[in-house]
């Protein structure tokens, strides 16, 4: 697996799984009816942010991540990131590889820490992965996320120093 900077040419491969994941409404605080132009605007970052893709030996996009400063000004030293793995490629270590890459890249870019603002507590696979990569749940916003089948569930804020 290779992780590289995403280009505009990668968007057509990202959009189908990005759309399916956001439309399901189970893991991201994005509108479930987000259209392609809106999705591209959210996901394909401009500097100082960056978007990457994980690809296999044939060039197939397996997953993607975006990273950017969590805030501006005096809080711009804290990074933020989001991740999506094509469900057809779950269980292949793509999420872990993207997580490790993003942490290393944020450290190399001079960030002092990374914060995830909205990890849905019922997304237990992601919570376990981030904890295994050194993130801690700093707090949980009770009923901070409206899950389409589980109702109102908590929304974790997770953090780790770099």
Question: What does this protein look like?
Answer:
- This protein starts with a strand and ends with a strand.
- The chain has helices at 11-24, 36-43, 94-108, 124-132; strands spanning 2-5, 50-55, 61-69, 78-85, 113-120, 136-147, 151-161.
- It contains four helices and seven strands, in the order E-H-H-E-E-E-H-E-H-E-E.
- Helices cover 28% and strands 36% of the residues.
- By secondary structure, it is an alpha+beta fold.
- The mean pLDDT is 96.
- The protein is globular, with a radius of gyration of 15 Å.
- A seven-stranded mixed β-sheet has the order 1-2-3-4-5-7-6.
- It has a domain at 2-114: Aminopeptidase, CATH 3.40.630.
The largest pleated sheet is described as:
7 strands, mixed
Write out the CATH superfamily name of the domain at 2-114: Gcn5-related N-acetyltransferase (GNAT)
CATH class of the domain at 2-114: Alpha Beta
Strand order of the largest sheet: 1-2-3-4-5-7-6
- The H-and-E topology, N to C, reads as EHHEEEHEHEE
- What ranges have pLDDT less than 50 throughout 5 or more consecutive residues? none
User: Which outline best applies?
Assistant: globular
**Integer-rounded radius of gyration:** 15 Å
Percent of residues in helices comes to 25-40%
Tell me the structural class. Answer: alpha+beta
Residue share in β-strands? 35-45%
Q: What is the first-to-last residue Cα distance?
A: 24 Å
Supply the CATH architecture of the domain at 2-114.
3-Layer(aba) Sandwich
Q: Fill in the CATH topology of the domain at 2-114.
A: Aminopeptidase
What descriptors fit this protein?
single chain; 4 helices; Aminopeptidase
């Amino acid at each position: 697996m290779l992780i590289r900077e995403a280009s505009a040419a990668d968007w057509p491969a990202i959009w189908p799984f990005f759309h399916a994941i956001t439309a399901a409404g189970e893991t991201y605080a994005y509108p479930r009816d987000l259209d392609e132009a809106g999705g591209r605007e959210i996901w394909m970052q401009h500097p100082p942010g960056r978007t990457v893709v994980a690809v296999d030996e044939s060039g197939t996009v397996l997953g993607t991540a975006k990273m950017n400063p969590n805030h501006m000004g005096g809080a711009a030293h804290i990074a933020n990131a989001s991740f999506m793995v094509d469900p057809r490629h779950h269980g292949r270590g793509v999420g872990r590889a993207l997580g490790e890459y993003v942490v290393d890249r944020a450290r190399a870019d001079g960030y002092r820490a990374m914060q995830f603002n909205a990890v849905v507590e019922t997304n237990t696979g992601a919570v376990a992965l981030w904890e295994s990569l050194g993130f801690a749940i700093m707090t949980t916003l009770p009923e901070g996320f409206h899950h389409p089948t589980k109702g109102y569930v908590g929304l974790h804020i997770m953090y780790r120093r770099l």
